[in-house]
Amino acid sequence: MFTMGEDMMKQWAENWEKLMGDHLEKLVHNDKFISEMSKSIAATMTGKAFYSKALDEQMAAMNLPSRTEIVKVLQKLTDIEERVIDLTERFEDYVDAQQSKPAAKSAPVAEKAAPEAKPAPDAAAKEVKARKQKK
Amino acid sequence: MKAKQEIPEAYREMLSRSVTKSYTEADRQRLGMEPTPKVQVFRQGCWTLYRCGTDFASDYDPVLIIPSLINRNYILDLLPGHSLIEQMKLAGLDVFLIDWGDPDAGMGHCGFDHYVSKWVKRAVRQVKKITGKARIQLAGQCIGGMMATMYAAHPELKNDLSTLFLLTAPLDLADSGLLAQWTATEGFEVDKLTAAFQGLVPAHFFHASFPLLDPKNQLAKYRRLLENFEMPGFKEIWQALDIWGSDNVDFTKQAYTELISTMYQENAFYKGEYMVGGRKVSFKDIDMPILSLVARDDHVFNEKAAFAIHDCKAAKQGLLDYHVIPAGHVSLIAAHPVRVHTYTLVREFLTRPEKLRTGAKKK
């Protein structure tokens, strides 16, 4: 239970919370306010970007790697890691495919004898004829 | 005369820790956060794939959970009795969880396409390989749900999936709430806002605006703690949520830019114009069983953003189960008593998806 003074404080706190809440709600829904805030942050960030660029140039003048260059190296490392894992997966897929087809290895003759491996005799003859005509 | 009531010393201590965000690992251990044991099964760069629990035997297709990029994944396994993953394990599911970790500046060029077509694809491959199952059940929370939807919508990648479970996943970001209004405002130019960042957009940059999404709730936060201080279990869940809420993660610059300009300002994913793995993907092509759970009092996205799932083929075939839970963006799984209802829906869908198909609910 609260004392009389504490009850008043509690009431005051509740009123403050309600007033602040309503005010903030209106503010965060106000397009004009959001637009001005965005523009202000964007201007600050543009300034920060300009400063970072100037710092990069100073680092380059001292023959030291800048943060921009380090980030580029890190990105290349990420790409290389990605590529290595891609290749590992492809290799694993290849091994799995080989292991699941043990019969294919022991039947190379059958593969050679496959009719679709050879061009049709008519087509081959036509190709030779066309080459001769070109000459 | 009324007896004077003292404000508990423990309350002052909690208030101070919350305001200064001075939480430590000891706090997490004292509260028993992340109760489900996890085994690392794959790691690449900053992200890790975990297998949850100790008993992996399961009669069902394994579940892979894609968490959001904005906060840590332990909101899905917050405290004993407040854990979606714990419930999935109790249902006999083999659960895998992605931890996006802390991206470094070298990953700054990785956007949503990269996350989905490379990393989620790789995680799915690992889950299939480890479990020996041809198909898995893909689950996604918040932005993770959007990524899961991209995967399920891809004409080739979708063949890896048997079901899709979306938890507060936004699809149609036009008029989806305050964030959509802010990004549509004149002067909100993401290139200028992020011009000074190299590789990463720091968590403190975009999290500074998060309390403004629900200012009344923020103002009432400490009053509610005081009013419910003696309620059994309230302090613990309040502090666990506060620890999670203050444990923010940097965004890769590309993902942040895409989220604001491509997803919010252009609404490209909803329009079917976003490219994943070199192909345009449209969620309208999804034709597998879907469970979509939406929070009625979500302050991040409104219900309209998630309701768009009704436009997909699965909904037209009666394969969509859609529920609006009377709770907030995370309280529907972590805090509110209604979480028990959420757990039931999730367990039933992931263990018997064919029995839960109640068909698309029309608004």
Report the principal-axis shape of chain B. Answer: globular
Number of strands of chain B: 14
What is the CATH domain class of chain B? Answer: Alpha Beta
Share in β-strands of chain A: under 5%
Q: What is the average per-residue confidence, as pLDDT of chain B, rounded to a whole number?
A: 91
Helices of chain A, by number, come to 6
- E-strand count of chain A: 0
Q: How many separate structural domains of chain A?
A: 2
SSE class of chain B = alpha/beta
Share in helix of chain A: over 70%
Strand content of chain B: 15-25%
CATH architecture of chain B: 3-Layer(aba) Sandwich
Number of helices of chain B: 15
Percent helix of chain B, as a range, is 25-40%
Taking the alpha carbons of the first and last residues of chain B, their distance comes to 56 Å
Can you write the helix and strand succession of chain B as a string?
Answer: HHEEEEEHEHEHEHHEHHHEHEEEHHEHH
What fold name stands as the CATH topology of chain B? Rossmann fold
Multimerization state: heterodimer
Question: How would you describe this structure to a colleague?
Answer:
- The complex is a heterodimer of chains A (135) and B (363).
- Chain A has 135 residues and is mainly alpha-helical.
- Chain A folds into two domains: 1-62; 65-104.
- Chain A has helices spanning 4-28, 31-61, 67-99, 102-105, 108-112, 121-134.
- The longest helix of chain A has 33 residues, at 67-99.
- Chain A is extended, with a radius of gyration of 37 Å.
- In chain B, α5 links the parallel β7 (136-141) and β8.
- The radius of gyration of chain B is 20 Å and the shape is globular.
- In chain B, 46% of the residues are buried.
- Chain B is 38% helix and 17% strand.
- With 363 residues, chain B is of the alpha/beta class.
- Chain B has helices spanning 9-20, 25-31, 84-90, 112-131, 143-153, 178-183, 190-193, 203-207, 215-227, 234-246, 253-265, 303-307, 313-316, 331-334, 339-351; strands at residues 38-44, 47-52, 63-66, 77-79, 82-83, 95-99, 136-141, 161-167, 200-201, 251-252, 274-276, 279-281, 290-295, 320-325.
- The interface between A and B is large, with 41 and 39 residues.
